[in-house]
Amino acid sequence: MPRVKRGVIANKRKHNLRKHTKGFRHGRNSKITRMKEALSHAFAYMFAHRRKKKSDFRTLWNTQINAASRENGLSYSVLIAGLKKNNIALNRKILSEIAQENPQTFSKIAAKAK
C-alpha cells in the first residue's frame, strides 16, 4: 500500500481556519488550538445574535412608534389598541417607517386610532 501524505489537507484546514480568524487578536489568529476555540465561540455568538437581532429591531420599532404617537397626544398602547379596534392592519415595522419618513401620514393614522 502506498504511503499517504496529508500535508495538502492539513494546510487547507489551517488555511480555512486562518481565513475565518483574520483580525482576531492575542494568538487567536495564529495558533491552531486558540483559533479553533475562538471560532467555536464566535460561531455560537453569531447564531445567538442572529436570533437576538429580531427582538432588538422590534424593540426599536416600538420605541420609535411610541415617540411618534406621543407627539400626536397618544400613548403607544392606546395607539395600538385603537388600530386593532378600527381594523387597521399595519405591523410595527411599517408603522415605524411611516413615523420616521412621513409624519403627516402617521398623524392621520393616529387620528383614526383616537
List the helices and strands and how they pair.
Layout (H helix, E strand, L loop, with lengths): L6 H14 L11 H40 L4 H10 L6 H10 L1 H11 L1
Helix pairs in contact: 1-2, 2-4, 3-5, 4-5
Provide an overview of this structure.
The chain is mostly helical and 114 residues long. It has one domain: Ribosomal protein L20, C-terminal domain (c-terminal domain of poly(a) binding protein, Orthogonal Bundle), CATH 1.10.1900.20. Helix content is 75%, strand content 0%. The protein has five helices and no strands. Helix 3 (76-85) packs across helix 5 and helix 4 packs across helix 5 (103-113). It is rod-shaped and about 85 Å long. The model has no long low-confidence stretch (mean pLDDT 95).
Provide key terms for this protein.
114 residues; mainly alpha; 75% helix; Ribosomal_protein_bL20_C
